[in-house]
Amino acid sequence: MRATLTFVALLAMTILLAGLSLHTQYQSETRLVAGQYLKALKVAYLASIETYELDVATRFRLQIHRPEVLALLDRARTTTAADLPRLRGQLYRLLRPDYEDMRRAGLRQLHFHLPDGRSLLRFHRPELVDDLLFDIRPSVRIANAERHLVRGLETGRTLSGFRYVFPIE
Fold first, then answer.
1. Which pLDDT does position 23 carry in this prediction?
2. pTM of the full structure
3. Strand partners, 162
4. Concatenated DSSP letters for 28-72?
5. Residues 6+ apart with CB under 8 A from 167
6. Which of 26, 85, 97, 143 could serve as 150's disulfide partner, Cβ 3.0–4.6 Å?
7. Which residue, 94, 99, 151, 106, is CA-closest to 122?
């Protein structure tokens, strides 16, 4: 009887240790597979971001950074408040076909700012103008102050999104 109890105890201990070993190995394999999926996801995410940035930079260079657009933006910097609505209208009419092309490609917003951070023209909401954005849109403040492209996920007043903010010289 005592030998049977010892045998059962040893068998139970062996099964428990084998189960623990299998569980530990399962967890290790799960972490390994999850790590591989995370690496693949990171590569896919970075490739997507780079592809979108290439598209946005190309659109900026070909559709926005043109002499006639730059001339209007330069005039907007130095004009009076009374003349800004007319300049906004000219800018809107000039870039409306390009904006529609951008929207079809999945880009939701095109927004111009003045050097002091005020909104010059939102193509998605042209009636909203002159609000200060430096406090709520750090990307606009950084792009204006440091004069380089700023990209990243940013929250706005109503929508969060991945933004590309280009300074215009």
1. 86
2. 0.74
3. 153
4. HHHHHHHHHHHHHHHHHHHHHHHHHHHHHHHHIIIIISSHHHHHH
5. 143, 144, 147, 148, 149
6. 143
7. 99
